[in-house]
Write a structure and sequence with these properties.
This protein has 532 residues and is mainly alpha-helical. It has a domain of 202 residues: Rossmann fold (3-Layer(aba) Sandwich). Helices cover 59% and strands 5% of the residues. It is built from 25 helices and five strands. A five-stranded parallel sheet has the order 2-3-1-4-5, with helices on both faces. The N terminus is likely disordered. Keywords: Transferase.
Length: 532
Amino acid sequence: MRGPPHRGHCVTLEAQARAALKRGDLPAAVSAAKALTLAHPEQSMGFFLLGMAAAEAGQIAKAVPLIEAAVERGPRAEHLAQLARLLSLLRRDGQAAKAAREAMALAPVDALTLDTIGCVLARLGDHETSVVPFTAAVAADPGNLNYRYNLAAASGFTGRVAEARAHYEMILAADPGNARVHYALAILSRQTAQANHVPRLQTALAQTRRPEDSLRIHYALAKELEDIGNAPDAFRHLSVANAAHKQTIRYDFAQDAAIFDAIETLFGSGASALATGTGNADPAPIFVVGMPRTGTTLVDRILSSHRDVGSAGELQAVPLSVKKLAGTASRVVIDPATVAASGTIDPAAIGTAYLERASHHRPQGMARFTDKLPANFLYIGHIARALPNARIVCLRRNPMDTVWSNYKNLFASQSAYYAYSYDLMDTARYYARFDRLMALWESLWPGRVLQLSYEALVADQEGQTRRLLEHCGLEWDEACLSFHENSAAVATPSAAQVRRPINADAVGKWRSHAEALEPTRAWLEAQGIQTR
């Protein structure tokens, strides 16, 4: 009879599996991991490595139970961190947060595990907490530029601007062509004629080889050139970058038009087909919606400065709840088929599913919370029925400033939500459909949505803030006027602006490009949309 496997043999199998994973040889990794599992079924490492091989193969749902089996055999920080990462990819946010915290509690020392924990926390919106593992990861492996980038980004999101800048500069010292760092530095703060990175960016642009790098550096140049008052060159860089990227993603406005059509059909002419029900009565959520770059972050900061309100950030909880309950087979979160299928869902089921997903993100100890995903304006019909006591605020900004601000900001470049924004006329068309949809919601639920003017808020901060709080069922709180002192993290392009007192700097910015934007303005006016 054979005795138990020798310890050295198991160490060799583990090393073989890890080496195979590192070089991308998944069959060899699986073979070694299986042998390790058979040799020591009571130990965790074989199951963990089998799970990692499955994850590398893109089989996330298969990988999770294998790594859970590893954790059951004795928790290790590395295993819990990777479990948290995979759970977050599956949008199982509550379980991901729990696993990440358990991993951190085991005091990991290896840089990859620490960085993985930080990435999970950041993905879940907990940027403040993510700074701790990111800092430790950089301390453990100072030369790893990816770890340092993650720390720099978290530092920027949490208002540690000087630290963020220092880390970004250290990365560029080692990797002068790093395009995402060039872009991050450009948007970190407002540039001046005396202090900017334009010459360095021009050099980097001349040396780019990949389209995605060129896109980011063009955007960085446009941002800095606009900051220092060179509007023509800023527009030129945006035009080049956006035209190329639109071609890359093969966007056609008909894709978004079909979604708007489906929503209008469901809630307008097809309203009789909607499932009946009273929804979930929880009054906690406050939805802040609108076109991107119209003041949603500003209003979120104002509301979350209130003593009874915490910000949950930009949640995907409404879109994901509707998608899951609709049960459509498409791989995208929203499409015409999903919109059509969502009409038969019990409104209370959507409300309850939303609150469950949101519960993992809302700050503890607060009676109310904000969800500031701008694109939730597409779901106002669902929200109004599913959460009848939730409050909804929609930001409205001058149409031309809205179009220009969408066109000039680099959103998540692979996100379907913002695919329209790489073309001025597509953006104008999108705005026109947004405007029409908001009119539909107002006709169906009069007064349910507070349509708050960004320009009015800037001109009369206290008056409009009082109106906002009253709509949300909140008592007056003086702290809402000092939103710029709010220390919570901001992970949007507005991070620098909302840390300053309210100002009118962004009002009428489109006029710097009035000549180039004239065809867009004329088209909007022809649709009956006032642009002045």
